[in-house]
């Protein structure tokens, strides 16, 4: 091997090395961005939202917590009596668990009730026939 062949081989190796450095830097940027905490939260949220079973579980949990808090507020109110506060906490826990476990059934019932009332509302709002000449129809 002569010196010109050696110089060509060195330039090719340097060019290959510079291309690989560019690719490595791009890959590092991608990894850095994917490990950013906000990106991790976004991916986790998208996974939960895209999964129908997780969505139903999340919805049931939210419904249960909401129902528990409302039931405690209605029953106990703003009291400072420790027995009532304890009773309210137990009631809240029981209602939250019951609603969360039966969220599918309660959601089905709620959607049917909403559909029933919407159907009644739609049937009442039929257009009223207004004659063009009302006196002619009366006489």
Q: What structural category arises from helix and sheet content? A: mainly alpha
Radius of gyration: 34 Å
Count all strands and give the number: 0
Distance between the termini: 120 Å
The largest β sheet comes out as: none
* SSE sequence, one letter per element: HHHHHH
Give unreliable regions as ranges: none
Summed up:
Helices cover 84% and strands 0% of the residues.
Would you give an account of this structure?
This protein is mainly alpha-helical and 139 residues long. It has a domain at 52-121. 84% of the residues lie in helices and 0% in strands. The protein has helices at residues 3-34, 37-50, 52-75, 82-101, 103-124, 134-138. α3 (52-75) packs antiparallel against α4. The radius of gyration is 34 Å and the shape is elongated. The termini are far apart. The mean pLDDT is 77.
Features:
single chain, 139 residues, mainly alpha, 6 helices, 0% strand, elongated
Layout of helices and strands:
Elements: H1 3-34, H2 37-50, H3 52-75, H4 82-101, H5 103-124, H6 134-138
